[in-house]
Amino acid sequence: MTTEPSSYHRRVAEQKRAAIMEAATELFLETGYDGTSLARIAESAGVSRATLFKQFSTKAALFDAIVTDYWRPTEGGGHPEPAPGDLRAGLTAIGNGYVDLLTRPGMVSLYRIVIAEAPRFPELGRAQFDLGKMPYFSSVRRYLEAERDAGTARFDDADTAATQFLGMIADYVLWPRMLLVDWSPSRASMERAVAEAVATMEARYGA
């Protein structure tokens, strides 16, 4: 007799996990990380405490899961690493994918939670950095290194190049949203921002 959970039970577990993470994100934003208890999250998610503790043994583990989920690309899985050989096409694909990531529902809320609570809970900032930003950043750095190896780009420091590219996009797409609640640039304007960032990278690093 198999002990593996059935597809139905796996689906139910996934649904409960998603409900827990959604409820936790809303409560973290509303009452802060410190002011939100696992018991309240369970109540808001409509699950038992036993179910929540089975999924997440600590509040920190739950927050880590939220960060990892938000930084995971929504389509295709993995992090974007186009095949090298065409710097403009590759950077454009990465740039537009980064826009999709930064504008997905909840990303701004996640940043606000981290910024508000990091002075008292520095582990939240570390989770955002280590589990979210750095894996994505590393994928962009690897792509740029592959372009350099292919002879389509020239630079000495891949970290600097990746930081510059992602920073040019985030400065228009993400950071104004942190302060301006009505900041909602059109898709066309964000694509223009990506195109300008790509043109800048080509001018500086294109071989």
UniProtKB/TrEMBL annotation:
The keyword Ribonucleoprotein does not apply. InterPro entries: Homeodomain-like_sf (IPR009057), HTH-type_TetR-like_transc_reg (IPR050109), HTH_TetR (IPR001647), Tet_transcr_reg_TetR-rel_C_sf (IPR036271), TetR_C_Proteobacteria (IPR039536). Residues 14-74 form the HTH tetR-type domain. Residues 37-56 bind DNA. It holds the Pfam family TetR_C_7. It comes from the Bacteria. This is TetR/AcrR family transcriptional regulator. It comes from Nocardiopsis sediminis.
